[in-house]
Amino acid sequence: MKIRWQNTVCLMVGISILWGCDYARMREQESIRTYETSMPEMVQGTVPIQGGLQGLRETDLEDLKNPLAYEGASIDQGKRAYGYFCIMCHGPNADGNGTVGQSFYPLPTNLKSEYVQVQSDAELFYAITFGIGRHPPLGYTAAGRDRWAIVHYIRFLAKKSGEN
Ligand code: HEC
Question: Atom 34 of ligand 1 has which residue's CA nearest to it?
Fold first, then answer.
């Protein structure tokens, strides 16, 4: 009983100490308040308008090359990333038979097909990044290196299957 009584006192002292803290200062900051009309002046050049995905959109696909070498490590990276970002629609064999993909019209493309394989790395990278037809844009979902590595991986699958 005695211990409980002491706990209560400690708790009350604790609360009163916290109560006394000056939380009002939290309100004194730069953020815009509700209904406040004046906008802070942005320093020139703060908001990027070039580079990133916008820069890629303006790049000539002829000049865009896969920065990763076609080798075991990048193919493995592509395989891993394919498992995260593509498998649900294009399927484990990249033939367009993924579970989620079956509810799309048109169905996801067979990535080993000639139609896909004749495209350059840059064209495939571009289609994955910005989407095409019913294809979702994945530029903000999958990192650039992963997207390039996936391109190697789908080439590897096509070669392995002998389809193209
Ligand atoms: C949400 C489902 C979905 C996901 C996820 C998805 N795709 Fe697709 N993909 C599609 C569909 C549907 C099409 C057919 C689009 C069309 O023709 O309208 C397609 C088409 C393609 C094409 C053919 C593009 C062309 O030139 O016509 C490529 C290449 C491709 N996907 C690669 C990928 C890769 C690589 C990934 C993973 C990074 C991926 N897709 C993730 C649904 C998906």
Answer: 86
Nearest CA to ligand 1 atom 14: 108
Q: Assess whether the C-beta atom of 149 lies below 6 angstroms from ligand 1.
A: no
CB 121 within 8 A of CB 148: yes
CA distances, 83 to each of 50, 87, 140, 144 (Å): 31, 5, 17, 16
Alpha carbon distance 67, 60 (integer Å)? 15
Instruction: Give the model's pLDDT for residue 100.
Output: 94
**Cβ 145 under 6 angstroms from ligand 1:** no
Q: Is 89 exposed, middle or buried (0-12, 13-18, 19+ CB in 10 A)?
A: buried
pLDDT tens by residue, 6-49: 888 888 888 877 777 666 666 677 777 788 777 767 777 776 67
Ligand 1 atom 36, closest CA: 86
pLDDT confidence tier of residue 2, bands split at 50, 70 and 90: low
Ligand 1 close to Cβ of residue 151 (< 6 A):
no
From first CA to last CA, the distance across the chain in angstroms is: 82
